Write the C-alpha cells for this entry.
Amino acid sequence: MNKKIRNVAIIAHVDHGKTTLVDKILHQCKLFGEHEKPGELIMDSNDLERERGITILSKNVSVSYNDIKINIIDTPGHSDFGGEVERVLNMADGVLLLVDAFEGTMPQTRFVLQKALEIGLKPVVVINKVDKPNCRPLEVQEEVFELMFNLDGSDEQLDFPTFYGSAKEGWMSDDVTKRTNDITSLLDGIIKYIPEPKVEEGPTQMRITSLDYSSYVGRIAIGKVFRGTLKANQQVAVIRKDKSVVKQVIKELFVYDGFQRKNVDEAESGELVAIVGLENFEIGETIAHIDHPDQLDPIAVDEPTMSMLFTINNSPFYGKEGKYVTSRHIKERLEKELEKNLALQVHDTDSADKFNVYGRGILHLSVLIENMRREGYELQVGQPQVLYKMIGAQKSEPFEELTIDVPDEYSGTVIEMVSQRKGEMKNMIRKGDRINVEFEVPSRGLIGLNNQVLTATAGEAIMNHRFIEYRPTVGPIKERQNGSLIAMESGTAIAYALHKLQDRGKFFVAPGENVYAGQVIGQNTREGDLVLNVTKTKKLTNMRASGSDDKVLLAPPIEFSLEDALEYIEKDEYVEITPKRIRLRKILLD
Ligand code: GDP
C-alpha cells in the first residue's frame, strides 16, 4: 500500500459547492502562496464552464495533510462527457459525493455515482450548505442512502461515512448536531475512509487515462502509475491498443501540487502523474518498462454520435466583428481542438469552406462552438444530425438513456412529449413532489427536446441523458408545429432567427453593434419561432417590436409577455441572467 497518498474523485451536481469546498481544502492545507488572492476559485476556471454550469475537462488538484498527499480528481458534470468520467474514475481509489443539504441528490450526479460504485470505489458523503435556513440534512442523507441502494443493490457499500457542514463558512462535522470550526474532520475522514492506492512492485506500468495540451510542450499524458516507478528521462515502451510498441523517452515528469504541477525525478506506484515529451500516444494506451512491454487493458474513448457542419459566417447582414474570419482560421482552430478533445472528429467536405464536425452530443458540440465564438471566430453552424451506422445489413442509430426530473403535475406532459419522439418509458420514481422518469430514446429525439420540455414545465424540468448503444433505426419522428416559442441557451446566436422574424413583418429588430451575429445552433428553429438570446456579455440593443400579442422567452426559458421582456432588456436587467436555473429564477421571479 502507498500510505502516503489518497486519490479521491469528487462528484457533485453543479452549484452544490464543489469549487467552494476544494478552495477551502486548499486554504486549510495552506497552499495559497502570497501571490494568490484568497477566495479566488480555481477549480473550474473556464468562464463558459461556469456559466453553463458544467465541468468540461477534468483538472486535478493536490494538497498535503498530516504528511499525506491527497490528490483530488475532478469529474465532469455532464453525461456528454460520460467517457471522460469513466476514465478519470479509474485514477481514483474512492469518491467524495457532495450533495446540497437543501436540494438533495440530482439525476446528473446519479450517473457518475453509478459508475463509481460499479468499479468498486468507496464513497464518502458530504452534505453541504447546512448553514442555509431551509436545509434538510438528515432527509438528504436518507435520500443518498436510497440512491446508493437503488444503484448498487448490494449491502456492502451502503455503510458510508457522512459529513455535514458548510463549505462556504469553511467547516465540516461528522455529527449533524455539532458545528465545528474548520474542515479537519473531513480531511481526517478522507485519510481514514478512502483506501490507500495499491502498490504493485515490478517493472514500470501505467495507463494513459487523460490528456492535456499546451502550446509550449504539446500533448501531456496523464494517468496513475500502476506498477513500479516512473522516472524522468526514462526510455519507455508505449503499447498501442493493437499491441504494437513504440519506444519513446519521458522528457519531464510532473505530479500535482496545489493547483499546479510540480516537476519531479520519479513517481511511485499509486501516484498521479503528467508526462511531457511523448510524441505519439492516445488515451487508453499503456506506458511500460522498455524490457517489459506488458499491456494494461485498453480503455475505450466514446464514439461520436452527432455531427454539425461548421462554416465561416458570411451573412451579408452583419459586419465582420470577429478576429478570425477565414476558413483557414477555422480549420486550424479545429485541428488544435483535436489535440485534447478526444471524442471529437473533423472531416473535410466537398467544399473547402465547410467542415463536418462529429461529437458526443449536442452539448459537446455547443461548448466548442461557444468557445470558438468567444475567441472571435465568425462561425456559422448547421442543424445537428445524428450519425447513422450500418451494423450488418441494418441501418442503426444512436440511442440514449434519458432521465427527466419534474414536478408531479408536469409528468404526463413530459411523458407524452418524449413518446412522440419515439422514447420508451422504462422507469418512474417518486421523490417528494417530484417524479423522476427514465426513458430510452433515439438520440435524434433529443434534438430540441430540452427547450420544449423546459417550456412546458415552466423551467422546472431537469434533463440528463447518456449514450447507450447503436440500435436498429426506428421510424420518422413527427415534426412539431410551427410557431412555437423556443428559448436558446445563453451564448447561442440569434441574429438569424431575428432576421427571419423581421422578414415576416412581425417584429422589427435592428441589431445594434453588440448583437451577437450568427445562426441559431442546435435547435429546430422555424419560421414563426421567436428566439431571444440573453448572455452576460453580449447586449441586445435597439430592439423594437410590434405585434405584441406574442410571448417572448428569455433564455433559459422562462415565459414572459413581450412587454415584460422588453422592459427587462431596456432596464439592462437581463445582464445578470445566467443559465443556472436557480439564479435565473431568483433574479427574474423574486
Ligand atoms: P460548484 O458549481 O459545485 O463548483 O459550486 P460553487 O462552489 O461554485 O458554489 C455554488 C454556489 O453555492 C456559490 O454561490 C457558493 O457561494 C454557494 N455555496 C457553496 N457552498 C456553500 C455553503 O456551504 N453554504 C451556502 N449557503 N452556500 C454555498
Observations:
- The pocket of guanosine-5'-diphosphate is lined by residues 12, 14-20, 128-129, 131-132, 166-168 (CB under 6 Å).
